[in-house]
Amino acid sequence: MAGVGIIGTIIIGLLAGWLAERFTRSDHGLLTNLVLGVVGALVFGWVAGQLGFFPRGWIANLIGGTIGAVVLITLYRQFRR
C-alpha cells in the first residue's frame, strides 16, 4: 500500500477486517476477520499497484482494504459452506 509502509498496512488491515466484519455481519470470529482484513488490505494494495492506481493516505487505503476484506470474507463464507 503506497505511502503507509508495512506497519501502516497491518494497522489498516486490522481496521479493515473489523469494519468488514460489521458490514458483512460475519460470525466466524474476530481473529479470522482481522486476518482476512490484513490479507484483503495487502491484496488490494497489490492489485491497485498492478492496475497503476496508487491510493494515497490512510483513508483511501482503509476504504480499499475494507473492500478487499469484504470480498475475502464473502469468498471465505462460500468455501466454508
From TrEMBL:
Domain of life: Bacteria
Annotated compartments: Cell membrane
GO cellular component, one term: plasma membrane
Topological relation to the membrane, as annotated: Multi-pass membrane protein
TM annotation in the entry: 6-23, 30-52, 58-76
Key words of the record: Cell membrane, Membrane, Transmembrane, Transmembrane helix
Protein family per UniProt: Belongs to the UPF0410 family.
Protein name, as recorded: GlsB/YeaQ/YmgE family stress response membrane protein
Species for this entry: Pleomorphomonas diazotrophica
